[in-house]
Structure formats: structure tokens, C-alpha cells
């Protein structure tokens, strides 16, 4: 059996190795965080962020923008028919479920491009609804809600739309 001195030496050695390993992991973690922050900053000023900002501007006041210029900037013909999905949640944990629902609906409708997510410039959906309500009131935005159906029926909604059986917009509701 090893002496107390030998045991103490072994404990000291394990402690020294542990400190060295923890120091290495701390340094690695700090490097990863710094790298992430730099990459996030690069993304924030990237084409994807610029595209989302331009789409947000178009949605907030399309009349003030040159559609042909915006089409060139986006690399996408804005004079085509477009699909839009408006989703929101009062829950801070609703983001992933809403994102999945949006993609499911757009794919069922035949979307082949990556959806652009535009976060509202206002904090609450009610504020956004109020803005859109003013656009409806003054005639700049015309909507006809034909039906409200669950997201699970998005394929059937797509078929109805393709067959011309939807006289207006269909609101798809998430569970």
C-alpha cells in the first residue's frame, strides 16, 4: 500500500493536471465565443441581413420603392405572384415551431426558394395589425379571408388553390 506521502503526491499531480485541462478548456471556450461574435457581426452586415431589411422595407411601404430596382437588388422578380405567411407567437419559446410551420406551409404551396423571414419593426403583432388595418382602411391593401384551416391541412389548401377553389386568402392556424 502506498504511503501517505505518495498518495498526497498523486493527489497533487491530479490536481495540477486538472487545473491545466480546465485552463485549456476555458481558453478554448473564450476563443470560440470571440469567433462567434465576429462571425455574427459579419452576418449582421451580410447580404442575408440586407435582403431581409429590403424585404421589410418593401412590406412596410412598397409604394415608396422602385420595384424594378428592388428586384435587381434581390435578384428576384418582384412582379410575380408571391406567397406570404405571417406567423407570430406571444410565447418567447414559439420561434422554432413557428419557423417549422412557415416552411411546411410554403413548401406545400410549392415554394422552391428559401423563405425570407422579416421580423416586425414594431414589438407587438397588434401594432403591426394596426398598421395593416390602416392600409386596408385607406384602400392600399385588399384582403379576402376565404377560410381558416389548421397547418396540418396545408397540402389540401394547396390543392384547393391550384384547382381554383379558394376565392381569397386562407389563414393557416398553428396548434
Structure overview:
This protein has 175 residues and is mainly alpha-helical. 57% of the residues lie in helices and 6% in strands. It has a domain at 83-173. 3% of the residues are buried. Residues 122-128 have low confidence and may be disordered.
List keywords for this structure.
mainly alpha, 6 helices, two-stranded parallel ribbon, elongated, 175 residues
Chain-wise SSE layout:
Layout: H1 4-44, H2 47-61, H3 67-74, H4 95-108, H5 125-137, E1 145-150, H6 154-162, E2 169-173
Parallel strand pairs: 1-2
Biased composition (Basic and acidic residues): 126-137
Region (Disordered): 113-137, 152-175
Task: Kindly provide the radius of gyration, computed on alpha-carbon positions and rounded to a whole number of angstroms.
Answer: 26 Å
In total, how many beta strands?
2
Task: Measure the end-to-end span.
Answer: 66 Å
Identify the strand order in the major beta sheet: 1-2
Instruction: Name the shape in a single word.
Output: elongated
Secondary-structure-derived class: mainly alpha
Mean pLDDT: 75
The major β-sheet equals:
2 strands, parallel
Instruction: Show unreliable segments.
Output: 122-128
What is the number of helical segments per DSSP (H or I, 4+ residues)?
6
SSE pattern: HHHHHEHE
Strand content: 5-15%
Helix content: 55-70%
Biased composition (Basic and acidic residues): 126-137
Region (Disordered): 113-137, 152-175
Amino acid at each position: 500500500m502506498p504511503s501517505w506521502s505518495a498518495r498526497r503526491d498523486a493527489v497533487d499531480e491530479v490536481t495540477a493536471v486538472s487545473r491545466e485541462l480546465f485552463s485549456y478548456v476555458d481558453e478554448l471556450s473564450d476563443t470560440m465565443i470571440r469567433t462567434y461574435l465576429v462571425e455574427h457581426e459579419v452576418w449582421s452586415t451580410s447580404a442575408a441581413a440586407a435582403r431581409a431589411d429590403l424585404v421589410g422595407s418593401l412590406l412596410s411601404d412598397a409604394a415608396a420603392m422602385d420595384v424594378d430596382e428592388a428586384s435587381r437588388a434581390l435578384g428576384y422578380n418582384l412582379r410575380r405572384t408571391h406567397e406570404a405567411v405571417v406567423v407570430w407567437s406571444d410565447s418567447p419559446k414559439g420561434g422554432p415551431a413557428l419557423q417549422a410551420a412557415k416552411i411546411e406551409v410554403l413548401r406545400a404551396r410549392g415554394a422552391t426558394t428559401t423563405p425570407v423571414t422579416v421580423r416586425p419593426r414594431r414589438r407587438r403583432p397588434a401594432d403591426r395589425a394596426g398598421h395593416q388595418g390602416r392600409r386596408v382602411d385607406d384602400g392600399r391593401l385588399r384582403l379576402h379571408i376565404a377560410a381558416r384551416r389548421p397547418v396540418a391541412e396545408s397540402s389540401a389548401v394547396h390543392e384547393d388553390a391550384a384547382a381554383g377553389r379558394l376565392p381569397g386568402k386562407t389563414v393557416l392556424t398553428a396548434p
